[in-house]
Design brief:
three-stranded antiparallel beta sheet, 2 helices, 21% helix
Length: 76
């Protein structure tokens, strides 16, 4: 079963080396879990209505976690 995280983060300024989420992730403001993509999209839509997101100071990310391969034999 695939779960989804909806993450509200602060937007950081562009640095000389660019943005790298693995080495320096954006600061998280809110994290909400959802069990379906539809639920995650509804939560993300609510976050996108916030003034800070509309002003470009924060961003919303929908991340799939716990994804399993469609072919069970691919695990071996």
């Amino acid at each position: 079963m695939t779960r989804f995280l909806v993450v509200l983060t602060d937007v950081r300024p562009v640095e000389a080396l660019g943005r790298n989420e693995r080495t320096s992730p954006e600061r998280r403001r809110q994290v909400v879990g959802a069990t379906s993509r539809e639920a995650a999209d509804r939560i993300a839509g609510a976050f996108m209505a916030l003034g800070m997101v509309r002003a470009g100071r924060q961003r919303v990310k929908v991340i799939a976690v716990g994804r399993r391969p469609k072919d069970p034999e691919a695990i071996h």
